[in-house]
Amino acid sequence: MSDEGYVRVRGAREHNLRGADVDIPRDALVVFTGVSGSGKSSLAFGTLYAEAQRRYFESVAPYARRLIHQVGAPRVEEVTGLPPAVALEQRRSAPTGRSSVGTVTTLSNSLRMLFSRAGSYPEGAERLDSDAFSPNTAAGACRECHGLGTVHRVTEESLVPDPSLTIREGAIAAWPGAWLGKNLRDITATLGYDIDRPWRELPQDARDWLLFTDEQPVVTVHPVREAGRIQRPYQGTYQSAKRYVLHTFADTKSATMRQRVQRYLVSADCPVCGGRRLRPEALAVTFEGQDIAALAALPLERLAELLRPSAEAGDAADAADASAGSAGAAGERSVEENVAATLARDLVSRIEVLTELGLGYLSADRPTPTLSAGELQRLRLATQLRSGLFGVVYVLDEPSAGLHPADTEALLTVLDRLKAAGNSLFVVEHDMALVRRADWIVDVGPGAGEHGGEVLYSGPVPGLAGTEASATRRYLFDGAENDGAGDDEGGAGDGSATRAAARGVREPARWLSLSGVTRHNLRGLDVDVPLGVFTAVTGVSGSGKSTLVSKVLAEIVADRTGGAVEQPGGGAGDAVGSEDGTEEDDAQRTERTDPEAGVAVAKGLEAIDRLVRVDQKPIGRTPRSNLATYTGLFDAVRKVFAATDEARARGYNAGRFSFNVTSGRCPTCQGEGYIAVELLFLPGTYAPCTDCHGARYNPETLEITYRGATIADVLEMTVDGAAEFLADVPAAARGLGALRRVGLGYLRLGQPATELSGGEAQRIKLASELQRVRRGHTLYLLDEPTTGLHPADTDVLMRELHGLVDAGHSVVVVEHDMAVVAGADWVVDLGPGGGERGGRIVASGTPADVAYAATGATAPYLRAALE
Ligand code: ADP
Ligand code: ADP
Ligand code: ZN
Ligand code: ZN
């Protein structure tokens, strides 16, 4: 084989790769397959992409060399024929802050330009710079809400939830409790207010003053006797409930305090900009009769419709110019019309690509934190199509994530177009429909971690049929599934065990009935969710599946079971305190206030005792959180070390072995093992600590060994390895066993949370849940649990989920994998389309009912899976 047209990799040893040699064609759609942990990403991202990146930096930015040196070059002997690469990954966290669909795609820039240059201005108004149309700039942001669109307010209802109480009884619930609360009541009495009359009987002006005044009168208080104790007179300062709540909310450093007062706040659209986030001057400018905020709030496909007339007018005029053959004709159109036509055409053509990728239901103002990883990756993919790059390798991580099988075709079209433009596509993928359509397959395996790391096959797809060791082969070729079943410990045959056909469809024990569900694109939906069975919610992207399951169902059941939605894990000792708080804040900020959101009637909630959500959100955002800390395993490990003779002799307790505690950790990296490196073009990257080289501990701590291993050695062990090493430590063995059952035996205990994929994070959460003793009836909610999973991994996961149902619980999943849907007891199919064209139930019933229903995008695919 000649070098021509191939990327040649020799001796790749990154992570678990075992000196892999492989030749991969350029200008082709190449898929990388293999079970989770087999080494696909280590080859595609860790070797090929990393090497391309390293070369790029060396060529353009000599100053970056030092940084590259720190990050480390991939462990590979030689790579030849490698073009520059662009990675579209899901793994690293999404951009946060104020980024939106519009900013990621740069559609916002064009829209602002359109308004600045071609908008209709009020008579006599000055033309505005395009910055003035951005809520993220000082020039554009509404002065009242600083461009956020919402303001936090207090109302009488929010501050006094029960007006039948007296002030002494705590009518003003928002006031602090205990001593400070009593002070305020005493001051109130001294000021002459009746604190023993029900709140609702107090005159309105008194109520208003007590709740809302900005005055802070100082009075001499002779404390009212409470509980028989007498106090001395003192000078007390009055503070209204509003003042107390708003100040605490804005100034407190305590997350708990903030959360407490947040309950008394209502967020509402900013009264000045009406939630539109911009200054009045900018909002006065219109295009086709609407302001820029209104256009940014439209689903993209509607925005394209609105812009199309301007774009086409431009086309017509251009055609006229061309046939007139003179420069003069253009002069008859105004400058604005020309600009409008150019910008509108550009916007329309870019939106068309997004619509093709099934994203036309998104609006430009949609904050990126509310997007799924799959949606975000496809947004970036579409943006690349316009970049006009050629001769590059695009390295993608499961672009089919979040896509209904009906949308996969469009994805292939886009990939084909990138290829036709002269690019190579290296895609880590699990969706066999997509894998079948590739030009070339690189199958890595046979197992995970140290049991993987070999290239089993590299060549055109049909050739894989002859590779017996491949786990992929069994799912890719009809008939091969049975051949392979006998000769391996666990994979193939088990898939059918979770199939409803093999097991028999379970009968629902009871029903949870919701009616009048209104949220996002769900408008007055009625839905019955069976309990005691496995339910799959299906539908094209944007049809409302996540809204129904992860928002509505989660919240209403959480409400009823008291308090927050439980997230498994969150490991005791080493948890990093503030993270949960910030995540909630993000959710708060990104969820628009929708006054109509809600559920009119909910029946059957009493049957559920507990709610558990197992999502793909990262289990932590810094390398400080890891597998061991999250699952609580690390507590058991630290106790083992603290119990050794040497540790006892030196007086080291379990805390000493925490890298979050000063005494035991490496002072240079403060126990992180890594140091954050800011690279210009990369999201935050971490380089190993120069002192402890990633060990995280100081030398004294590392002098303590257990069975010859230091605590840092244990963190380096895989789950499989640790299960053997700690087999006789019950507190550790239980958790390790659960992790192995969900197929994560290949992960290292100290694997930083930042290196885990969403699918891995989700299975870690599930494992934490499996190791618990469960009480009562639990409802488990999962959003696309198969993302990132090879079909063989999916089988393992499904076995565990069906086990929960067999134990008497209920499982509801949002899912696109038809093998999983076919194995469910009940299916709710939403649609028919995305966004405002979805939000209805197209069909529901057993998988067979839905498959043979005449309607819905899911039916044909489900039929194929059932046959
Ligand atoms: P796949 O993409 O096939 O799921 P990966 O390439 O992500 O597999 O992982 C292959 C092996 O390398 C696994 O054992 C994994 O735990 C290990 N690994 C992954 N990332 C890292 C890392 N940053 N450092 C060390 N080991 C890693
Ligand atoms: P699916 O899960 O079926 O892909 P979603 O429930 O995510 O669909 O979305 C359904 C509709 O609700 C879409 O029109 C989407 O744009 C909208 N939507 C989802 N989340 C939000 C949000 N946080 N803010 C505004 N609109 C949202
Ligand atoms: Zn405002
Ligand atoms: Zn260090």
From TrEMBL:
<keyword id="KW-0963">Cytoplasm</keyword>
<keyword id="KW-0067">ATP-binding</keyword>
<keyword id="KW-0267">Excision nuclease</keyword>
<dbReference type="InterPro" id="IPR003593">
    <property type="entry name" value="AAA+_ATPase"/>
</dbReference>
<keyword id="KW-0238">DNA-binding</keyword>
<keyword id="KW-0228">DNA excision</keyword>
<keyword id="KW-0479">Metal-binding</keyword>
<dbReference type="Pfam" id="PF17755">
    <property type="entry name" value="UvrA_DNA-bind"/>
</dbReference>
<comment type="similarity">
    <text>Belongs to the ABC transporter superfamily. UvrA family.</text>
</comment>
<keyword id="KW-0863">Zinc-finger</keyword>
<keyword id="KW-0862">Zinc</keyword>
<protein>
    <recommendedName>
        <fullName>UvrABC system protein A</fullName>
    </recommendedName>
</protein>
<keyword id="KW-0234">DNA repair</keyword>
<dbReference type="InterPro" id="IPR003439">
    <property type="entry name" value="ABC_transporter-like_ATP-bd"/>
</dbReference>
<keyword id="KW-0227">DNA damage</keyword>
<feature type="region of interest" description="Disordered">
    <location>
        <begin position="479"/>
        <end position="504"/>
    </location>
</feature>
<dbReference type="InterPro" id="IPR041552">
    <property type="entry name" value="UvrA_DNA-bd"/>
</dbReference>
<feature type="domain" description="ABC transporter">
    <location>
        <begin position="505"/>
        <end position="857"/>
    </location>
</feature>
<keyword id="KW-0547">Nucleotide-binding</keyword>
<feature type="compositionally biased region" description="Acidic residues">
    <location>
        <begin position="480"/>
        <end position="491"/>
    </location>
</feature>
<keyword id="KW-0677">Repeat</keyword>
<feature type="region of interest" description="Disordered">
    <location>
        <begin position="563"/>
        <end position="598"/>
    </location>
</feature>
<dbReference type="InterPro" id="IPR017871">
    <property type="entry name" value="ABC_transporter-like_CS"/>
</dbReference>
<dbReference type="InterPro" id="IPR027417">
    <property type="entry name" value="P-loop_NTPase"/>
</dbReference>
